[in-house]
Write a structure and sequence with these properties.
The protein has twelve helices and no strands. The chain has about 220 residues and is mostly helical. The chain has a domain at about 1-90: Serine Threonine Protein Phosphatase 5, Tetratricopeptide repeat (Alpha Horseshoe), CATH 1.25.40.10.
Length: about 220
Amino acid sequence: MPQAEEHFRKAREESPGNFSALRELASICKIRGELDAAETFARQAFDTASDNPYILDILLGVLIARPRNKLGEHEPEIENLFGKLESVGEEEGRSFYTTRRAEYELRHGRVDEACRLIDAAASKTPGIFDIHALRAEIYLDRGVKSVASDEIEKMKRVVYRDSPAGERRTNLRRLLEIEATYLATSGNYEAAKKIYGNRGVFTEKEAQAEIKNIDYEQAMKKR
């Protein structure tokens, strides 16, 4: 991922209006938790291509990923962006709007509605990695581990067999994070922590932060 970021930054320097490179930079920064940088890149892309469903999707994704106590200040803009995405994001069999709306409902704790929406997205576009990932997260939140497990297996097939090399790197990180959450939720804390030992995906700092969260969850479970 660091190498991908380096190449996309170079592409942006060579062609400042390249909104595809900006979108990819926003996506990489979002995955790594660098939300301020992700928002900057997403907004730059939006300035160039405000009706592009891929750009609307990443900007919404970054805003929705903000801490829950910060979501309120973005609500009017989020709803406006959803209005735009609904009109262009469901064309030609796509499910941008339905998928991102499911994530939004999950962030607000409306798990039943999130399940309804992500199930609809999965039915409409069943082969999309992000849909498998979000469906796993939603059903883990709902406590239905069997569905989450099935989605993780589908994600593995996409990552290890179907994805192009560059896409595989990006998707691998999210797969490992969700798999670690699944293991920790199942009480297999040591296996969850071991996942973050992959230095090809996680930096030492990132791994330590996630392992600390797992240790905290494990300690709370024992109380």
